[in-house]
């Protein structure tokens, strides 16, 4: 974010963990921008974050530090007959 002139320095951007999910760590990134730049900054920042995580994942995977794991699955069972259509 330091390279992006559209992101205001004051007040400083906020970054933190929002939630620990079952198979994820959800975080937030809240930079301050002028209203006219909101959507372009949001889209560009999301893309940069995604591409950075992809690069880190590929690096860790090549080094054998991180391997593919199956995400948890959930099953839904009908208890009453006919309740699910």
Produce a short descriptive summary.
By secondary structure, the chain is an alpha+beta fold. It has one helix spanning 38-62, and strands spanning 14-20, 25-30.
Average pLDDT: 86
Helix-and-strand structural type? alpha+beta
From the N-terminal CA to the C-terminal CA, the straight-line distance is 50 Å
Strand content: 15-25%
List low-confidence stretches: none
Helix content: 25-40%
The largest sheet has its strands arranged as 1-2
- Count of helical stretches: 1
Largest sheet: 2 strands, antiparallel
Give the strand tally.
2
**Rg, Cα atoms, Å:** 20 Å
CATH topology term: Alpha-Beta Plaits
Number of domains: 1
Q: How would the global form be characterised?
A: extended
CATH level 1 class label: Alpha Beta
SSE pattern, N- to C-terminal: EEH
* CATH architect. name: 2-Layer Sandwich
Description of the structure:
The protein is of the alpha+beta class. The radius of gyration is 20 Å and the shape is extended. It has a single domain (1-85), classed as Alpha-Beta Plaits, CATH 3.30.70.100. The chain is built from one helix and two strands. It has one helix spanning 38-62; strands at 14-20, 25-30. A two-stranded antiparallel ribbon has the order 1-2.
